[in-house]
Amino acid sequence: MDRQQPTGVPGPRVWDEPVRRVLVLGDGQKLSVENTLGPMVAWLRARDLAVEVEPDVRAFSKRTNSPPPTDLVVVLGGDGSVLTAVRAFGPNPVPVLGVHFGRVGFLAPVLGNAWEAGLTEALEGRCLVEQRMRLQVELPGGHVHYCLNDAVVSRPAASAMVALQLLVDGQPATEYHADGLILSTASGSTAYSLAAGGPILAPELQGIVVTPISAHALAHRPLVLGPGSEVVTEVLRSRSGVAVVLDGQEVARLQEGVRLTVRRCPVDYPLLVPSQLDPWRRLSDRLGWKGSLG
């Protein structure tokens, strides 16, 4: 399948940057990852590359404020591991190649048993790069966070539903009585937003999906906003406050009257994919769609 795009049409392009330094991050909770780390590092070093290894990507992300300089990040795990790695690099992204040892693998396109082929393609400049839109989330006090998949505002466990107001570009749009609200990118459209009834967006699409979680009014359906939209969520009523969860990690609790602002991050995140990867087969395989794709 030819995935090169006509001139002027956004889409993946060939990633042919020189690679001299590689950071390998692993999901330390998976035995299959542990068994692969040694052979992979030896394989990379045999090609005269400077290689740093972090066997636990979660611990690495928690302790680092300034990741080491590198040309390529290889993540062994699943989508959660890739999200954790992306979070560690914050506003200064480095291309990530995800090697899939998880259950889903939308963000990790290289199968675990095919890592040599995937790395060879990356080092030879034959991979494609998908520039994935991210969200920039501003919390009270001027705290800024970034997320690749989604920002979720939701009621704490076992508490009553919350009332949230949605403002788009400064104008009140609607009020939700629900368990919460998901603001997602195209990358996150196949994650929590999809489970809550949101649409699937092609990875290259630039937009913000607003998906209510168990909304009390049937008229409330997911919205797809433009990439330039500023989306504000205000907590109108909540007995216990609401949790703010970014890419699966809780970062704050908001009380009544507090607002959260979400807009497009000015810097997209580069994810590498094999040149012959069929995006529709990947989607079909991950979602368990039935039927033949040829």
Q: Could you say what the CATH topology of the largest domain is called?
A: Rossmann fold
Just give the CATH class of the largest domain.
Answer: Alpha Beta
Question: What is the radius of gyration computed over CA atoms, rounded to a whole number of angstroms?
Answer: 20 Å
Helicity, in percent?
10-25%
The shape is: elongated
Number of domains as seen in the coordinates = 2
SSE inventory with pairings:
Blueprint: E1 13-15, E2 21-26, H1 31-45, E3 50-54, H2 57-63, E4 72-77, H3 79-89, E5 96-100, E6 110-111, H4 115-123, E7 127-132, E8 135-139, E9 143-147, E10 150-154, E11 162-168, E12 171-178, E13 180-184, H5 192-195, E14 208-213, E15 223-225, E16 231-237, E17 242-246, E18 249-254, E19 259-264, E20 269-273, H6 279-287
Parallel strand pairs: 2-3, 2-4, 4-5, 5-6
Antiparallel strand pairs: 1-7, 7-20, 8-9, 8-19, 10-13, 10-17, 11-12, 11-16, 13-14, 14-15, 16-19, 17-18
Structural account:
The protein has 294 residues and is an alpha+beta fold. The protein folds into two domains: 13-133 and 268-287, 3-Layer(aba) Sandwich (Rossmann fold); 135-264, Sandwich (Tumour Suppressor Smad4). Helix content is 19%, strand content 36%. The protein is built from six helices and 20 strands. The chain has helices spanning 31-45, 57-63, 79-89, 115-123, 192-195, 279-287; strands spanning 13-15, 21-26, 50-54, 72-77, 96-100, 110-111, 127-132, 135-139, 143-147, 150-154, 162-168, 171-178, 180-184, 208-213, 223-225, 231-237, 242-246, 249-254, 259-264, 269-273. The strands form four sheets. The chain has a six-stranded antiparallel sheet. Strand 4, helix 3 and strand 5 (96-100) form a beta-alpha-beta unit. The chain is elongated. The model is unreliable at 1-9 (pLDDT under 50).
